[in-house]
Amino acid sequence: MNSILRWAGSKRKLLNVLQNRAPVSFGKYYEPFAGSAALYFKLQPKHAVLGDINPEIISMYRAVKSSPREVLDYIESIPTTKEGYLTVRALEPKNLSENQRAARLIFIMKACFNGVYRTNRAGAFNVPLGSRFYRLPSKEEIDEASRVLSNTVLRLGDYSKALDGAEAGDFVYLDPPYSDGNRFRGEYSYDGAFSVDDRDRFLKTCADLTTKKVKILVSFKLEESFITKLKGWNVQKLDVPRSVAGFASSRVAAAEIIATNY
Length: 262
Ligand SMILES: C[S@@+](CC[C@H](N)C(=O)[O-])C[C@H]1O[C@@H](n2cnc3c(N)ncnc32)[C@H](O)[C@@H]1O
Prior knowledge:
Layout lengths: L14 H7 L7 E3 L6 H6 L4 E5 L2 H12 L1 H9 L5 H9 L7 H14 L7 E2 L18 H11 L2 E5 L2 H4 L8 E4 L12 E2 L7 H16 L3 E7 L2 H4 L6 E10 L7 E10 L2
Parallel strand pairs: 1-2, 1-5, 2-4, 5-7
Antiparallel strand pairs: 3-6, 7-9, 8-9
Helix pairs in contact: 3-6, 3-7, 4-6
Bound molecules: S-adenosylmethionine.
């Protein structure tokens, strides 16, 4: 199945390649940079952990897991008009119930420019309306998402927290942010570029998990300095059409890699 969330950094276009590179068998599935969790919804693992540092994403999965129909009712109550979008966009998530909050995220992502999640420094979502309203999830799709999520643990926070407990034979898919960080001053995105320090910590996490015999699949941008640090890994280079930093005007075929430690 497809994810119910529209997300600029989604790996939807790479799904077949990723699925082919996933291990044939594994214990638990971990996706600590979940976003729209495209690979998770494709694989539908029996036991899984999804994590993300963006509270809107994790609270949306919590609501869909426990109350899919209530979330859908809220989604369907929002007018698919510019006024509807601006009104819902202006709502403060903290003042909403978890179900309303989930409906707001699913709706604004289906309607916003290029499916980009971006806020101002005060944390207010400020992406303008896009060129059209993408199709909202159906009753069947939201029920299916809820069913897939039923045995999944949801963890809000840094990826290290989501990886707690990963052990030999488990499968971890790591898809960290790697946009070029090209954004307007005063804006913030959870998908901002990983700094050099972030990369070192990320590589240390990969090394620790490899020692524990955890199977890892990483997607990242093609960067020789990064690849040389993945000694002994299987690295595949790919050209993926994507919109850099979410702007259609800078759509390019970004060179990416997928790498496995198995
Ligand atoms: C490239 S997107 C993942 C896309 C995902 N694979 C999909 O199919 O939609 C990266 C995600 O990592 C999250 N993120 C950024 N920094 C993080 C961190 N330190 N720990 C956990 N999640 C983080 C972002 O909020 C974003 O949802």
